[in-house]
Specification:
single chain; 188 residues; mainly alpha; Endonuclease III, domain 1; 10 helices; 54% helix; globular
Amino acid sequence: MDSGRCSWCGDDPLYVAYHDNEWGRPETERNRLFECLNLEGQQAGLSWITVLKKREHYRKVFANFEPEKVARYSPAKIEKLLLDPGIIRHRGKVEAIVSNAKALIALEAEVGEFSTWIWAFGGGSPRRNAHVSLADVPSSTPESTTMSKALKKRGFRFVGPTTCYAFMQAVGMVNDHFVTCPQYKAGA
C-alpha cells in the first residue's frame, strides 16, 4: 500500500527514518546546523544515502560537529582522516569541514548567533511549498543562491546554491515534502 511518503527516500529503513523524523523539521541548534551544512557538502556528486550511512562515523571523527574542536584539527589530523574508510575520503571535502568550522567561529564573532544569521536567508520561519512530485522541486532558489554567495564570501566551502537548498530543506527552512506525504500534512 502506498503511504503517500515522498518517493525520494525509497524503502531503506535508515532513509525512511531520516525522512519521517528529521528531514524538513525546523532545526535551530548551532552544532546540528553546522553538521547539516557540512554533510550536505559531503554529498556533492554522491547520493544522500551514501552520506547518511556514514553520518554516525562523521559525528565521531568530527567531534560531534563542535566548531571550536573541529577548527583546531591539524594537517596531521586531516591526513589521518583521509585514511578513514568511514567517511568520504575526498581531501577538499575533509578540509572544507575544518575551514568551515573556522569560518563559522569568525562569522559568529562578527554577527552573532549562526542560527539567526543562517535562518534569515529563509525568511526566519519555515516556508511551506506545495510539490506533488520530485519534478516540481527546484534544485536551487534565489534564496539558496544568496545564502551560497554569503557563505562563500565568509570563507565557507562546498556550499553551492544546490547544496544550500538541500540544507534549507533538511533543516526545515522550507517544507518540500510532497503534499501527499504525511510529514507535509503534519507540518514537518
